[in-house]
Amino acid sequence: MKKRIIFLIISILTFIVIITICHFLFLPKLTSPVITLDKNWNIQYNDFTLDNVSIKDLDRSLPSSSSKGDILRLSTTLQNSSDYSFPTLMFLSRYSAVEVYIDNKLVLSKFTDKLAQDKYIGCFYNIVTVPSSENTQQLDIILFSSENSAYRYFISPTYGEYHDVIRSYIFKHIFPLSSAIFLIIFGIAFLIITLSFYKTLPTILSQLFSSLLFINVGIWMLCYFRLLDFFINTHGITTEIEYLSLYITVPLTYIIIGCIQDHYKDWIFLVVASTSSIICIFLIVLHFSDIARMNRTLRYFQCISLMCSIFLIVVIAKDIKQKKISPSETIELIGLSFFSLSYILNFVAFTFEIFHIFPESILTVRLIPMGGLIFVFANLINYFIYISESFAMRKEYASLTHLAYADGLTDLPNRSRYDKYTADLDKGTAEYCIISLDLNGLKEINDNDGHAAGDKYLQEFSSVLKQCFNEKCFIARIGGDEFVAILKEPYFSDIDSILTRLKDALEIKNILYPGYRRSVACGYAFSTEVNPKDSHSVYLLADKRMYENKKIMHERLGIAARI
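Below the sequence we write its predicted structure tokens.
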């Protein structure tokens, strides 16, 4: 267990080192500086005005928290834009319709139609192309709030060359971006692998749902850090995807816990998990029914997720104390606990940022991606341990099964395996043929040359038997010198040629190794010859014909008949 935990820690540290190296290797080279427009803003909030304020301190300067229907106007002066090929302004709007004016000319109008229809407006980074000018320009950003508390905090707009503005933002969030993409790709690959093993290893269910959680968390991170819109057009539903994937996290977490050691059979767990999951789904339904939007119900989800994290820690502590879970499952649950803890710490860090205790994004861009990666590495170790242990158990089971159903001397199926095979035949409707085979002269060889020679005779015959029937049928040793072969209908026409080939092979052995005489008596019967069809009756008929053949052979070879 200690070695696995050490390996997990080393893997995580190695990944962090690689990310750090890549951070400096791929540092973007900007063609021109990207300016953060933080200071010298004039603010008009409804009838309240402020002059020369900082965007970062704006929330503390406003008289109250924003409400639905409030209008916030932010004005400043843009410097000479002729130095840029594509001068661009980028700023974040939260639950608001947006209008942007440059020198009193409307250059962007967004979501005003949704505002008029009282439809949901999420959070977006707005990209505005600024007209090229050698003079300073007046910038006015007007935000029409569609939700209460839309602006609990403000992020300063950025201004510069288009590609530099985009690259600067993406590189600032390169860790969550790379982590999110890794989680999605890994989750999809992990899902395909677990689905391929599910039929043979049905207990792999927790890893299957973990792969879905990876994909879900990766999508949530892309939306949470406002990165998805840079790659695909979401048609304005990024925030809804963010909350939807966030709310689904709790049910998926409970499912993963429930699949480990069958916790879902515990009524306390079942009540807590079902109640929490139903509430999360109910909050989603409320949003899409336009009764209570998800950003307004977030506080309830946070309480539920906190309860989920505490419950997870209690379950892990209890299982470890009672030694109910395997080391691999312990590692998976510890990884899941780290991920849950990272969400709680991220919420705390975000709260600190709102109250200006921590600088913007110093923790929020790192905590959840790191928690997600720890969960991935924990699942990787758990998966490899689980697969290796499962295959070792399957190999051991196959070995024990082989010992139970194989003849120790010839390695052919034994009488028990034959009985099971014929029992299955009786349950089916397929036609078959049973061949009874009996070695000639085994008793004389045992008496004259010893049992070692007799064992060698049996091993030689079983080898020849395997070669001649060439996996066309089921063959078994059911007694001392008694063997049986069962052929299905497609090979009925080959029976005589196979038996001839068997006898010829024994004759070749007699010529090459003349120490003793090798021969076999044969008799066969078809299932269609017995009514009602019964494998034992078919075998008795085949055995009767074998003894008739044996009697003829004994008379020809001068071997005394056994009594």
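The chain has a mean pLDDT of 81.
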